[in-house]
Amino acid sequence: MSIPNTWGTPYGGHAAPPPAKDLRPRRIWYVVAALLGVVLAGAGITFIALTVKNTVHAVDRAHTFSSGEQRTFDFTQGRTRAIYVSQSVPGHVDCRVPRALADSLTRPPGTFRVTLGTRSWERVFEFTPKTTGDYPVSCTSDIPAADFALGDKPQVRNMAVGILAAVGCFLTAAVAVPGICVITAVRRGRCRRRLMAPPTPPAWGPPPMGPPPMGPRA
Fold first, then answer.
1. I want to staple 77 with a disulfide (CB 3.0 to 4.6 A). Which of 57, 84, 132, 148 is the partner?
2. To 10 degrees, the CA torsion angle through 68, 72, 76, 81?
């Protein structure tokens, strides 16, 4: 007749692997890491999409005009506008607006170019209307088939902020998601080894081996 072992795992033995539900931290942290990665990646894509959208809409391609043509636009006082040109090669560009609209056109420092499909639009002039109303704009270029368009002044700082925010989201996801997974796996492994460790012998175990102590006996 066999006697059941009610004392747990014998000394020196190995315990059975504990159930996964008993390990800490729980596996829910893997799900948290995945969701965090999805949210950060989605935020980065959103920042890029908004930046691209604002850049594309800076050029009013629906109301373009050819070299030498005059076209009337609606202007708002104090709202800086930009004139863009699309031409096959760089060429000399000249634009004119009524003096009642703006005192002068300025060539902005630096180059700002927007590529839409097979066409590139380059900013050539900027001006700030000093009054509100409809006024004509005319431009010429020494490059045949050059087209012009009115648009908004590009917000370079906002574009840079949007791109940096997107990069920050992607980098955070690349670091945080693997980090959470690795930490969770390491701690669960430690918890598993602790639960599988043999029990500590009781304090009332066998006496230590060796010669009896010297000295008088009662």
1. 132
2. -20
Q: Quick one: residue 87, left, alpha or beta (phi over 0 = left, psi -120 to 50 = alpha)? A: beta
The better pLDDT of the pair 215, 31 is held by 31
Closest CA to 85 of 136, 142, 130: 142
On the 0-12 / 13-18 / 19+ scale of CB atoms within 10 A, 59 is: buried
| DSSP 3-state of 24 | coil
The pLDDT value recorded for residue 6 is 47
202 in any annotated domain: no
Overall number of domains in the chain:
1
pLDDT beyond 80 at 11: no
Spatial CA neighbour of 139 closest among 92, 84, 82, 69: 69
Q: Domain with 133 in it: what CATH number?
A: 2.60.120
What domain range includes position 130?
Answer: 59-154
The model's confidence at residue 184, banded by pLDDT at 50, 70 and 90, is very high
Question: Helix, strand, or coil here: 50?
Answer: helix
pLDDT reported for residue 7? 46
Instruction: Extract the tokens encoding 184.
Output: 């969770």
**Residue corresponding to tokens 């304090």:** 203
Specify if 71 maps to a domain.
yes
What's the half-sphere exposure (Cβ side, CA atoms, 13 Å) at 8?
12
